[in-house]
Amino acid sequence: MPPTSTAVGVERVRATPAALAVLARLTAQHGPLLLHQSGGCCDGSAPMCYPRNDFIVGDRDVLLGVLDAGGDARVPAYIGGAQFEYWSHTELTIDVVPGRGSGFSLEAPEGVRFLTRSRLFTDTEADALRAAGPAQRGGWEEAPEATVEPTQTGYATPAQVAELLTLAALVGEEVPAGMRPSEAAQRLDELRRMAGRATRPVAVVPLPD
Fold it and tell me: What residue spans define the domains of the chain?
């Protein structure tokens, strides 16, 4: 899966497959993680990997993106605010190489260390990033999973029937005519669950009058 984009088709941070594999393994061992790049020259320097709850993200730290290593391994990558001013014109790639990095970074006992590589954005990419607005500063939180509240009475109200028709259009399901109120309520709960499990946004389809 690609990292979170900051503009359409443009990412400020990526990771190699080898780095994503290490992040997935470390997440399984330590829980949610983050990466933080600060100090030194980005190209060839080492980002630090910490348990997410063990590092306080500063108000000036910039969220470069969120690396998706599969499953629960979604790792936000930050850079210090001062560092970002020098490297905002580059795409950073998190890689992993043999060797022992900082003893404070979680990958150290693995016999590898994370490494940051960089390349200049093209003019087109730089324009897209400027059009997308300022980079996000401060912490990032994962969106909570969608929850579905069942209908309380088992009978559909007129507002619930309207929601039923809207959800059916969104997920491409048909609603049989002549449903009893209890059947409509049950079908509404099913469609709510289906919509809550959607992996991508679905365009809203206006219903006919």
Answer: 13-132, 144-209
CATH architecture under which domain 13-132 falls: Sandwich (2.60)
What is the overall mean pLDDT for the chain? 76
For residue 148, pLDDT beyond 50: no
- Which pLDDT tens digit goes with each residue over 68-120? 998 888 999 999 888 898 889 999 999 999 987 666 889 988 889 999 999 99
Q: CB of 77 within 8 A of CB of 67?
A: yes
DSSP strand pairing (33-37 vs 74-79): parallel
Q: In sequence order, what are the beta bridge partners of 51? A: 33
pLDDT at 62: 92
What is the three-state SS of the chain?
Answer: CCCCCCECCECCEEECHHHHHHHHHHHHHHCCEEEEECCCCCCCCCCEEEEHHHCCCCCCCEEEEEEECCCCCEEEEEECHHHHHHHCCEEEEEEEEECCCCCCCCCHHHCEEEEEEEEECCHHHHHHHHHHCCCCECCCCCCCCCCCCCCCCCCCCHHHHHHHHHHHHHHCCCCCCCCCHHHHHHHHHHHHHHHHCCCCCCCCCCCCC
Q: How confident is the model at residue 29 (pLDDT cuts 50, 70, 90)?
A: very high
| Alpha-carbon span 96 to 207, nearest angstrom | 51
17 with 59: CB under 8 angstroms?
no
